[in-house]
Design brief:
Elements: E1 5-13, H1 16-25, E2 30-35, E3 41-46, E4 54-58, E5 65-70, H2 74-86, E6 92-93, H3 96-102, E7 106-111, E8 117-122, E9 149-154, H4 157-167, E10 171-176, E11 182-186, E12 194-198, E13 203-211, H5 214-227, E14 232-239, E15 245-250, E16 256-261, E17 274-275, E18 280-283, H6 291-306
Parallel strand pairs: 1-4, 5-8, 9-12, 10-17, 13-16
Antiparallel strand pairs: 1-5, 2-3, 3-4, 6-7, 7-8, 9-13, 10-11, 11-12, 14-15, 14-18, 15-16
Amino acid sequence: MDIKSIGYVGVEVSPLAEWERFAKRLLACHVTHRTTPDDQKVLALRLDEKCHRLLLLEAGIEGNAFFGFELEDASALAEAKRELEAHGMAVEDATPAELALRQVGGMLHFREPAGYRLELFHSLQNDPEPFVPARPMKGFRTGDLGFGHAVLVVPDLDKSRDFYCDVLGFRVSDYLLEPNRRVFMHTNGRHHSIALSERQGFGIAHLMFEVKEFDDLGRAYDIALAEYPGAIFSTLGRHSNDHMTSFYIQTPGGFPIEYGWGGRIVDDATWTVSNVFGPSLWGHDRIGASPEARKAADVQREFALNHGITAPLYPDAGSLGS
């Protein structure tokens, strides 16, 4: 199966009023309002010319989510359905209402081994209105790389990884063994479009938005410090594997968003899968994590410090994938 990117994510949240200010003021998204045929209110968050990259559906119970993976066209979608059914997956075609909400040419959905609803689609529509960020900034790094990445909690890492790789066609970029097992997987040049974190529970560990300009990252962090200090989940830092400089902010929906700049590009011809010593070269103090997880991160950062581990910068990162 040839998945091009992760094109969109949808999440049921409540209430939308807090989300709108957060999405505009901190994230700088272009926000539009919609209503489904059954009067469900929807906020569509745009990061580029597409009609949405994140759909927020108002609901009494938060947390239900769906993840849209892009295929080339209707023929690729039909072939993907045959492949999934050959692996014993229960596949359903999208209803007209689901297609209208997602504004895609075609879509099917199924549940992967951990229980997440995955959607395969083609032809996500462009919005007729130009993309205008909610405050001055240079835009998000999307295009062929997709909207960003999603990290999901899974109970059985080996089972889930094998499904994403053997059935969906993702490739492992690298992995972590401590303090819990994590695997990072790519389907295009972005270092990871999907990552899996093995632990108890179910849900989104975080979503990532990547900006094109380093200064836009800094300005968003200023807003977080001044207006959302209690929502900062992880301080500004730099990752050891994708080399992203970022911070994590808790959203009104209860899951964090990583807001980053400068991620590296994977070249499958030269890439070597490795066990990463820890998630960050510096920073990323996980204020919102458990004391045990925070202590483990301290040890890993100390390892990077004592060994002088560094990584190159990618000054042209903003232009890639746009």
